[in-house]
Design brief:
- There is one protein chain.
- By secondary structure, the protein is α+β, with helices and mostly antiparallel strands.
- It folds into 3 domains: about 5-80, Phosphorylase Kinase, domain 1; about 80-255, Transferase(Phosphotransferase), domain 1 (Orthogonal Bundle), CATH 1.10.510.10; about 265-365, no CATH class.
- It has 11 helices and 12 strands.
- It has helices spanning about 5-10, 45-55, 85-90, 95-115, 180-195, 210-215, 225-235, 250-255, 265-285, 300-320, 335-365; strands at about 10-20, 25-30, 35-40, 65-70, 70-80, 80-85, 120, 130-135, 140, 145-150, 290, 295.
- The strands form 4 sheets. A 5-stranded antiparallel beta sheet has the order 1-2-3-5-4, sandwiched between helices.
- Helix 9 (about 265-285) packs antiparallel against helix 10.
Length: about 375
């Protein structure tokens, strides 16, 4: 371990074990008194946790430190004050609205993982690994058997998962992928509704067909991405907003007019966003454009630069799902990385065609 890493870890005061079984220790950050937890996991999980650290989401605990120490990875992450879903389910059975609210939030968190390159599969979605915090946020808290999809492999090297929630492919039939997590979501949805696994009892009602499709043995017959599952849930629920005791965070983001980069109000994100927007402004407004070989100048030049800038801002907003724009484009929200890439390329091409058309019409009217 490097001296700089040792120093960073020394900034967290130890308060002893929080969970003997999972070897979790309670910590306090000296700089601001923030309560955290320390976990030690195999070093082979470095790529997974580095990704999570760099791609924070409200449904995933924030990771403050990620330090390699030989064959061990030391994590300092956010302490979630709340209850596990398992504890909550000891006392109650969820209504359809409450259960789908949890599933929809988990879908949002899984998008972060499934849209990684390569996609990351959780592989262990179960009530004890899901927490509801004091603000009713739904969080996935254990990624110790998560793995990245490897295109050259036909099956997982290690067979891992929790009986009841694990899809058939987790037992060596084929390689796990995003549909593996969709299987677990179906089991979890059923468990919240009737506190039984589907093999023992399937929940009846509007969500029965959703559950049955999630847990198909043939993954080609399941929902192919979490976006498809979200869409079907909303359809079955009559387009109503499912709740978990609060407004869904995703819908808050979709109704917000705050531009990408500023929504989470984190200094690092804001600085990066400002730098990115300034670079885009410089790039678009320094373009030298010609018409029939003659350089444009004056009003025509600035008009075309402005239209191009607007088209590229639209592309940025689409890429970062501003007000849910990206969710309306099937190609871009596909679970397949190549389909998504093709969708972005096609969208960029269409935006440039529209920009050219707007320039021609505007110039005909104004000049």
């Amino acid at each position: 371990m490097r001296i700089s890493d040792e120093y960073r870890l020394s900034q967290y005061q130890d308060f002893g074990r929080l969970d003997e079984k999972k070897n979790i220790r309670l910590k306090r950050r000296s700089a601001d008194g923030k309560i955290c937890v320390e976990k030690r996991v195999p070093a082979e999980l470095v790529p997974i946790y580095r990704f999570l650290q760099q791609n924070q989401d409200v449904h995933i605990p924030e990771i403050y430190e990620c330090v390699e120490d030989g064959e061990v990875l030391i994590l300092i992450e956010e302490y979630i004050e709340g209850q596990t879903l398992e504890d909550i389910l000891q006392d109650k059975v969820f209504s359809e609205e409450q259960a789908t609210g949890v599933i929809l939030e988990l879908c949002e968190g899984l998008k972060v993982l499934h849209h990684a390159s390569p996609p990351i599969i959780c592989r262990d979605l179960k009530p004890e690994n899901i927490m509801i915090d004091k603000q009713s946020n739904v969080k996935m808290v254990d990624f110790n058997i998560a793995r990245a999809v490897q295109k050259d492999k036909k099956r997982d090297t290690e067979l891992m998962g929790t009986a009841g929630y694990a899809a058939p492919e987790q037992f060596g039939f084929s390689q796990t992928d995003n549909r593996t997590d969709i299987y677990a979501l179906g089991v979890l949805l059923n468990y919240m509704l009737v506190r039984q696994f589907p093999v023992d009892q399937i929940a009846e009602g509007r969500l029965e067909p959703v559950i049955r499709k999630c847990i198909r043995l043939d993954r080609e017959q399941r929902y192919q991405c979490v976006e498809d599952l979200e869409e079907e849930i909303r359809k079955q629920m009559g387009q109503r907003q499912p709740v978990t005791g609060k407004s869904n965070n995703v819908n808050k983001q979709k109704s917000s007019f705050i531009p990408p980069g500023f929504r989470r109000k984190k200094p690092a994100h804001i600085i990066s966003a400002i730098a990115g927007y300034l670079f885009l402004i410089w790039l678009c407004f320094s373009l030298e454009l010609t018409q029939e070989g003659v350089p444009l100048s004056g009003g025509r030049l600035w008009l075309e630069r402005t239209v191009i800038f607007i088209s590229q801002i639209a592309m940025v907003f689409l890429a970062w799902n501003y007000r849910g724009w990206r969710d309306r484009f099937p190609l871009i929200r596909s679970g397949n990385i190549w389909t998504r890439a093709a969708g972005f390329v096609l969208t960029e091409f269409i935006l440039l065609i529209i920009a050219a058309f707007v320039c021609v019409i505007s110039e005909a009217i104004l000049f």
